[in-house]
Recover the amino acids of this structure.
């Protein structure tokens, strides 16, 4: 679980949690109830499940971009 700061967007949260904006879609898929939000208010709880194992076990140069 991640609690947002005022003004954060999906890509910023994905970068903070997963290390890259390319995981923004995964983060959004796991928070369908929040999809109408583009810019978050402070204190919104976002579910942050672990990335799928297939993404985590590949070397960086082999991962989907």
């Amino acid at each position: 679980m991640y609690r947002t700061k005022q003004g954060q967007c999906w890509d910023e949260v994905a970068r903070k949690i997963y290390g890259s904006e390319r995981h923004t879609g995964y983060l959004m898929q796991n928070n369908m109830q929040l999809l109408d939000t583009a810019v978050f208010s402070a204190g919104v709880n976002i579910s942050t499940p672990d990335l799928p194992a297939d993404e985590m076990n590949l070397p960086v140069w082999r991962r989907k971009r």
